[in-house]
Amino acid sequence: MSDVQTLLTLPMETLVVLGAGYMGYRIAYTGDDQAHKAVDVAFISLAFGLVCGLGMRVKVGGSYEMGISVAIGIAVTILTAAIWKKYLANWCRKVLKATNVSYSDGRRSAWDSIRVSTKNNPTQLVVRQKNGMHLKCDYLKSFEPYPHGPCVFGEDGSIALYVTHTQNGSDPDWSLVQTTSTELGLQITYIPADQITAIEMRNLIT
């Protein structure tokens, strides 16, 4: 019997808890799971599954309706995962740092820390390439409503952005680029990681 078939023989409540747990894991660690091993995925999913299980114990109107309990359990899991992603994960890191327990954020590289941070509020992005051509996007917020906007940070170090200015390495001045075409729309540019020498980003401090 395959692993999938074995899982399908489990009680429905158990399947819901396992499924909701993994859903919670995916939400809480979207784009931030590169360093996770199978055991990490399993135990974090179980932790969120426990949240789902507790949510499913809630009685509505003094009765225990399976359908309603499942909906509550999944909703509580999703909400918990979102809160962890948005607030609690950063708060825990701050506490560990403030108490001198650990200065590590658990990520593989500084690039991963920048890429997945929910505190980024970038206003300007500059990508410097090996061929001496530099690309810049000013006022990134204005491109946020568009596909892949305002920019995309790839796990492998690649970047996609809407280029508003270009600069040749030997020329100190930036040249304006016509990013928008009335007939063809907006142009987004992809730069492979192996062509990038440096990335500069300005963030709005609020």
Write the layout of secondary structure elements.
Layout: H1 3-8, H2 12-28, H3 38-55, H4 66-98, H5 110-116, E1 122-129, E2 133-138, E3 151-153, E4 159-161, E5 165-168, E6 175-176, E7 180-181, E8 185-186, E9 189-191, E10 196-203
Antiparallel strand pairs: 1-2, 1-10, 2-5, 3-4, 4-9, 5-6, 7-8
Molecular structure report:
A hairpin with a 3-residue loop joins strand 7 (180-181) and strand 8 (185-186). Helix 2 runs parallel beside helix 4. With 206 residues, the protein is of the alpha+beta class. It has 2 domains: 3-98, no CATH class; 120-203, SH3 type barrels (Roll), CATH 2.30.30. The strands form 3 sheets. A 5-stranded antiparallel sheet has the order 6-5-2-1-10, with no helix packed on it. It has helices at residues 3-8, 12-28, 38-55, 66-98, 110-116; strands at residues 122-129, 133-138, 151-153, 159-161, 165-168, 175-176, 180-181, 185-186, 189-191, 196-203. The chain is built from 5 helices and 10 strands; from the N terminus they run αααααββββββββββ. The longest helix has 33 residues, at 66-98.
What are its keywords?
single chain; alpha+beta; SH3 type barrels; 2 domains; membrane; transmembrane; transmembrane helix
Question: What is this structure, in a nutshell?
Answer:
Helices cover 39% and strands 20% of the residues. The radius of gyration is 23 Å and the shape is elongated. It has helices at residues 3-8, 12-28, 38-55, 66-98, 110-116, and strands at residues 122-129, 133-138, 151-153, 159-161, 165-168, 175-176, 180-181, 185-186, 189-191, 196-203.
